[in-house]
Amino acid sequence: MHFDYLIIGGGIVGLSIARELITRFPDSRIAVLEKEPDVACHGSGRNSGVLHAGFYYSADTLKARFTRDGNRQLREYCYANNLKINECKKVVVAKDESELPALFELEKRGKVNGVDVKIIDENELFDIDPNVKTFKYALFSPNTATVDPSEISSAIKNELRTKGIDFFFGEGYKSRMEGNSIKTSLGNRFSATKIINAAGLYADKVANDFGYSEKYTIIPFKGVYLKYHGDKIPVRTNVYPVPNLKNPWLGVHFTVTVDGDVKIGPTSTPAFWRENYQGFDNFRPGEMTNILSWEALLFLTNSFGFRNIALDEIKKYNRVYFASLAQELVHKIDVKGFTEWGRPGIRAQLLNKKTRELIMDFVVEGDDDSVHVLNAVSPAFTCCFPFAAWVVDHYISK
Length: 398
What we know:
Structural class: alpha+beta
Strand content: 25-35%
Number of strands: 23
Shape: globular
Helix content: 25-40%
């Protein structure tokens, strides 16, 4: 089977690239290969559901522009297609004087990026949510919202099907063959003028077969949220701590879901294999050996603070400890109300093998035959539409 464009991976990035391609080239033949029975079975359907506003990232990053534009475009998509969206907004709060410089830096980044953010005082914060506490000041983001990622992904899939894009489910990538073609897990052969690798957790492995991602590997981190089932909802807006701007995690925070529920999290625990969601699901011994060898090296050298992260993340599986981290963000909370672990997700985090540093921004490699999205790291869901346009501009239609 030959196509003009063959996309490996039915997550939000693959879907968005397919959508951009069919919009620009409506007569082209496009196929999406997905090893699972439906779209968004991994990172795209297991993320927090937050549409970020774009104030965390410095102006010279792709994340800054894509998050700002993606927030607007996905909000418009939800309203145009009658999809669920919760305009719950967001505040970032400080615990003491030492965090105020970073808080004001976030406001500066947001304004440089063209994002609607502002510093508010404690009285203004009280009007937004009286249970949230801060030290003197907080950052207010009116455009942060929450959505249902699986619902959006399914809506895009249905849209693409009506436009003639072919989906092949249960058909995972297995190996590269001659003539810009690949073999699938079912033994079928697909060829294309352009192969686009959006395989998420396995993007680096697919890229290796095409001669790319030579200096990178993916290190998986497991994220789990803890849901609140107490009597009184503790917050009515998303509440985040001031983050450490040197790493890609935003700290334990409150998220108000699209359905109005409250959860805290996530964890960022090093995973032992790429789809290490629960127990021995999807266990691959060879994969575990490789990942554990990298994690052992990172632990021993404490690269990017990996040892500290690993030791601290393990403690979060104690619910009382986990809830206590969120307790710092509010005046009152029923710690015992956090009773249910959510569905685990895996962050596909790219690591530079030479420098042993995490890659913080998007990374794409490719040539005339293939394109490889190696690091579609958070907030890739928010960024999906403008990121897809950028990939097509720079790697496909140039």
